C-alpha cells in the first residue's frame, strides 16, 4: 500500500464513522555530564593564585562538561550563583555552535538546533520532559527565570538513557545541587532595564526591572542541602511594526506589482514574571541519595497595539483608484497616489496569563557495592489564557464615510511610507464602526467594529521512571550496564472562544439586517491621546483605550461559525519507554575510551477528543468525535569517545531518533462542508464534499543520524572542535497533504433533488500526513581560546566563537518534484565573543549572525505560517566590575549590558524577492545595569 493509501486508510475509518454520524445527525539524562557539572561547581579553576570567575569560569565549566561527556554536547554554565552569562537562557543558547534563535516581540524565544526548528527538539528540566505554555511542544524560554539554573546542556546526539530525545537535539536545563557547594551562599541581584526607543504608546513604558535572591546551605554534617530562589521581572519592549498584505500584479498599473495593503503599527509590551524554585537534597550515606526539585513561574504579558490598516490595490477589493504618474522600477510600483481609500483604524489590546509548575523527586538507592536502583517521579503543568481584543474605528460603515487620498513610496528597507490626507487623530471624523463592511458570521453580514479571541491551553505531564545500573569488572572497556523503563502521560487541552463586537444600541446579534447601529461616536473617556506613525509617514492617529470600549461601548456576540466551533480539542499521549545499554569506560588499544550503546523500545497510545462541524443549508451541526492510534518504535543508538592523543578526543555517534508532531496536527477535529454550487461536479478535487482538519493517527518524524566530532583541549583552558553530521528524515509531516475520500454516507444530508444531481460522492480530505522525507547535513567549527595560551602577558583576554553550515532538502508528497528547506534553517550561523576578565574587571562584546531562513510567524487568525526572513547580525556588549576580597565592598559586582546594539530589525519577505517585504519589526536597543551581592 502506498504512503498516501496508508494515510487514507488511517483517517478513513474515522471519517466513515463521522460521516455516518453526520448522516444520522528522566531522571538523569547523562551521568558523565552531570559529574562534570558537579566537578566544575565544586572546584573553580585556579591559575597562579588568581581564582577564575565570571566569563572564564563559565567557559571553563562548559568546556569541562563537553570534554567529559562521551556524547556530543554543548553547554552553558552560570558565571556565578544566579548569573547566566546573558540576559536570558535563549540568548545564551543562541551563542552555542550550530544553535540559533528567532526573535519574537524582541526576545529570543524559538531555538533552531542544527537547522531544525523548535518542533524537532525537546526541552528537559533536570532530565525530565517539560510541558509548555505555548500552542505546541516548543518551549518558550521566557517561562523559565534564568537565575535558577547552574548549567544548560544541549545534547546533539542521542543515547539510550536519554528519554524523550529530539531529532535536532535535547536541551536540559539544570538547577544547582546544594550538596555540591562548598559554603553557604546568599546572593541578591537587582537589574534595571531601559529600551532605547521612547515609549511608542502613551500607556506604555520603556523602563523595567529584574530582581532575584538565592539561598543555599547545608546541614546535618553536610548530608542535607537546600537551595531556594525567588525572582521578579517587569520588562518592557517597544516595536515599530509594519505588515504588508502582499503584492498582486495589478491591472491598474499595467501588470506591475502593487502593494496590496499595509498595516503600520506601534506596539508597547510589558512582560511580568514571578518565579520561585526550591531544591532539597539528602545523602546520609553512599547508598542513598534523594533530590526534590520544585519550580513555579507565573507569567503575564500585556501588549498595546495601535495602527491603521490601509487597503490599497484595487485588484483586492480596496475600491481605490490609482492616479496617473505612478513609478515602476523593475516591475514594482515604488511611488503612487491613490484616491478613495477607506482605512481601518485599530486600537488593540492583548493579554496573556500563564502559570508553569514542575516538581521532580529522584532517589538513588545502593543495592550492594556495584548496583543502584533509581526511581524518579515528576509532574509538569502549564496553563495559559489569552485575551486578544481588536477594536475598529473609521469614517463610516462599509466604506461610506469620507475617503482618504494617500501617497505610497518604497523605502530602501522594503517597507512603504504611507502619507495620508485625512487627519486620523480627529475624533469628530472617526467613529466606532465596521469601516470596510468585512463582518460576516457565516450566513449574514454583521457590523464588526471589533473582535475578541479568548483561547486557553492546559498541558499536563506526569512521568515515572525506574532504572537499575551496575558495574562490570575485568571486562576491558565494558564498565557497566543500565536498564530502565519510563511511563509518561501527557494531555494537552485547547479551548477557543471568539466574539464579534459591534456598537451598542439597536439590533440583535450584531447583524446588519436586524438594524444594528452602524456608526457610533467615540466616548471621550476612551481617548488617551494620540500616537505618531511617523516612521512610515502617518503624522498621528487616535489612541483609544480598547478595554474601555469593550466594557462600555461595544456589544459582543458569540462567534458560531463552523471554523470557530470546531477548534476545541484535547490530545492525550500515553508512552512506555524501555531501554537497555552497555557503558564503556576503559582502555582499548592503549587509548582511553568512554561511551555506550543500547536500544530504546517506545510504545505510544495517542488519542484525541474533539468534534466535526458540518455547515450545509445554512445550518451548523457539531458532532463529538474521537480518534487515535497505537504503535511501537525501536530506537538503537551508540556513542563512543576515544582519547586519540593527550587532551584530544574523537567522538562518534549513530542513532535512530524520533520526535512527535505538533499537537495541533494530532487533533481529531475536522471541518466538514457541503458546497451546493458544486453538486453537479464530477471532479473529486472540486466536488461538493470537503473536509479539513487534523490527523489523530499521525506518526512521529523519524531520523537516522550520524555524528562525529574532533576536540582538542588546551592546557590553559579552552578548546577547538570540528564536528559534522548527517540526518536522513522519514515520516516527515506534510501539513498540506490531502487525499480522495468517498463521502457517500454523507450524501443523505442533501435534498432528494440535490441527490439526483450529485456528480460524485468523492471529495478531498485535507489533513497532515507522514508523506515527506529529506536530508540534513552540515559541519561546525568552534574555538574557545584564552590568549594566555600564546603569552602570559595576554592573560585575561580570550575569544569564543563558532561557525556552522547546514544544508537541507525536504520533499513532500503533496508537492512532487519540488523540494523545500527546513523551517528555521539558516545555511550559515556564526557567533563570536571577545572578552577580557581579570582582577574583577570584565568586558565582553558578542556578535551573532544567521543567514536568511524560513521563519514561523503569526498569519491570518494567528495561525502559524512561514515566510523567508532576512539575514541578521546582532551585537551585544557588557562591562562590569566585581569588588575583590580585600575590598570593603567584597561580594558586590556591577554590570552594564547593551543588547542589539546594531538595532537590527526582524524582516520577512515573499517570492524570494527582498523588495516584497511582508513583516518589518524594529525593537530598538535595550540597556541594563545590574548589582549583584553575594555573602
Automatic annotation (TrEMBL):
Residues 1-29 form the signal peptide. Residues 69-169 form the TonB-dependent receptor plug domain. Keywords: Cell outer membrane, Membrane, Receptor, Signal. It is found in: Cell outer membrane. The keyword DNA-binding does not apply. Its main location: membrane. PANTHER family: PLUG DOMAIN-CONTAINING PROTEIN, TONB-DEPENDENT RECEPTOR-LIKE BETA-BARREL DOMAIN-CONTAINING PROTEIN. This is TonB-dependent receptor.
